[in-house]
Amino acid sequence: KHNPMSLTPLRVFFDKSVPAAGNHNTINMGDALLSDFETKRFRSVYSANLKLISEVGVSVHFSLDTGNSDNFFSSNYFDMNERHLQQDLYPLLSIQQVKEQGKPVA
């Protein structure tokens, strides 16, 4: 649910639905609305979608169910969903690892 665009006819572009696992015991979960108890479908509303628990020194991977940006006009809007659905996770790199790959650090 995108606020405030969910209240306009443009909601078809801004409100995104993605499969998700979890319940009210999920770490850092936002507000959820049970829409279909039989199939255990729920709507996550206004949530921080990146959940990460990591040990230092362990290879860490992550995924966002939507994307890097909530700006509809950004090329990163809803850009991670396809890989998220395939459970194709992105490696979480340190600044040093990014520099070693020769990539610019913002």
Radius of gyration, rounded? 16 Å
Which class best fits the helix and strand makeup? alpha+beta
Query: Poorly predicted ranges (pLDDT <50, ≥5 residues)?
Result: none
Largest sheet: 2 strands, antiparallel
Termini separation comes to 29 Å
What is the H/E order? HEEEHEH
The rough form would be described as: globular
Number of strands: 4
Structural domain tally: 2
Kindly state the percentage of residues in helix: 10-25%
What is the topology, as strand order, of the major beta sheet? 1-2
Work out the helix count.
3
Summed over residues and divided by their number, the pLDDT gives a mean of: 73
How large a portion of the residues is in β-strands, by DSSP E?
5-15%
Note the main attributes of this structure.
2 domains; two-stranded antiparallel sheet; Ntn_hydrolases_N; 4 strands; 14% helix; 106 residues; alpha+beta
How would you sum up this structure, described in words?
InterPro entries: Ntn_hydrolases_N. With 106 residues, this protein is α+β, with helices and mostly antiparallel strands. 14% of the residues lie in helices and 14% in strands. It is built from three helices and four strands. A two-stranded antiparallel ribbon has the order 1-2. A two-stranded antiparallel sheet has the order 3-4. It is globular, with a radius of gyration of 16 Å. The mean pLDDT is 73.
